[in-house]
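User: Hi! I have a protein structure encoded as tokens and I'd like to know what sequence might fold into it. I'm fairly new to this, so please keep things simple.
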């Protein structure tokens, strides 16, 4: 609530620059998109980035944050960012793999063993290099936010082995690799918009989905799918994108400010994310859900090795580097 109040005060303050308060008109007014609600950690990361740029430039650079998919779905906003219709865009890595296959390395099953392992990789040379690859696709990568681990939840039964997933229809993101992971584990992948998952679970159109703890809770999915298996099959990070078309119109000094603001928003967002996860787990446990942690991951890893054969081609060096980063 406090963050929302701060945000509203921030919007009010910036509004004065648009209605002739005697202040200099902003030189850049940048649109930033996020498909989550305003209070969500990723959206708040963008808000914090906006606040920093406003403070550092005296309002010369203004960022308008559009939450709750106001500017379109992730797939739509990625295309709009390439076109220069959206300046800043926070999306999950998975839909970006559809245009930048090199990022599939982050979506390979069980490649990250912990949150610490993920941070070490994305904040280090591997993550920086992959951000640089995005310019080929009309995008500039500014940094990575947290989205936690994605695990399976369903309405039928506890899942402790791949065999328990057989016969289930599992919602997946619209990314080929996610469908292949679910298929490798014996379930039927069912691409569906995130906004439709609750109804799908409620009606039986799908039996389950895979996502992080907060998404399971904040959208009410736990009410109709009470079994959550912490297998952490993927830990795909969120990514902050900037339109290359617009980036090339911005001077070098302001580019550095934008990069700095993005970098400083990362630890802020990750702190909010950790708090968000703990709150979600507490709410789930209070609601009487079943969170399954006592599982042997080796059969899951073995079953999904086929995904590496298909989606890991050409990424062998990245895969090796990520695995070595555990040490």
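Assistant: Happy to help. Inverse folding works backwards from shape to sequence: for each of the 327 positions I chose a residue that suits the local structure. Here it is:
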């Amino acid at each position: 609530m406090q963050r929302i109040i701060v945000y509203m005060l921030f919007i009010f303050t910036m509004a004065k620059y648009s209605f002739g308060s005697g202040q200099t008109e902003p030189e850049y007014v940048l649109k930033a998109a996020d498909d989550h609600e305003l209070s969500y950690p990723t959206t708040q990361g963008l808000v914090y980035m906006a606040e920093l740029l406003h403070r550092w430039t005296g309002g010369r650079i203004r960022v308008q944050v559009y939450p709750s998919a106001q500017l379109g779905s992730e797939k739509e906003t990625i295309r709009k960012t390439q076109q220069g219709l959206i300046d800043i865009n926070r999306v999950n890595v998975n839909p970006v793999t559809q245009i930048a296959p090199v990022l599939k390395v982050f979506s390979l099953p069980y490649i990250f063993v912990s949150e610490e392992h993920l941070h070490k990789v994305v904040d280090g040379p591997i993550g920086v290099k992959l951000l640089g690859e995005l310019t080929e696709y009309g995008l500039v990568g500014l940094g990575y936010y947290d989205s936690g681990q994605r695990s399976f939840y369903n309405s039928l039964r506890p899942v402790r082995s791949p065999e328990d997933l057989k016969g289930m229809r599992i919602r997946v993101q619209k990314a080929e690799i996610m469908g292949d992971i679910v298929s490798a584990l014996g379930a039927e992948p069912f691409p569906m918009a995130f906004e439709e998952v609750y109804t799908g679970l409620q009606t039986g159109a799908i039996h389950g989905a895979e996502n992080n703890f907060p998404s399971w809770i904040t959208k009410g999915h736990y009410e109709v799918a009470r079994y959550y298996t912490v297998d952490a099959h993927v830990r795909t990070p969120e990514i902050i994108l900037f339109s290359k078309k617009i980036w090339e119109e911005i001077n070098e000094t302001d580019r550095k400010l934008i990069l700095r603001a993005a970098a400083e928003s990362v630890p802020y967002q990750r702190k909010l994310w950790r708090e968000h996860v703990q709150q979600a787990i507490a709410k789930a446990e209070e609601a009487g859900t079943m969170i399954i942690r006592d599982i042997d991951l080796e059969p899951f890893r073995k079953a999904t090795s086929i995904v590496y054969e298909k989606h890991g081609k050409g990424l062998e060096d990245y895969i090796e580097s990520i695995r070595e980063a555990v040490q």
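A useful reference point when you look it over: The chain has two domains: 2-146+237-280, 150-235+283-319. Feel free to ask if any position seems puzzling.
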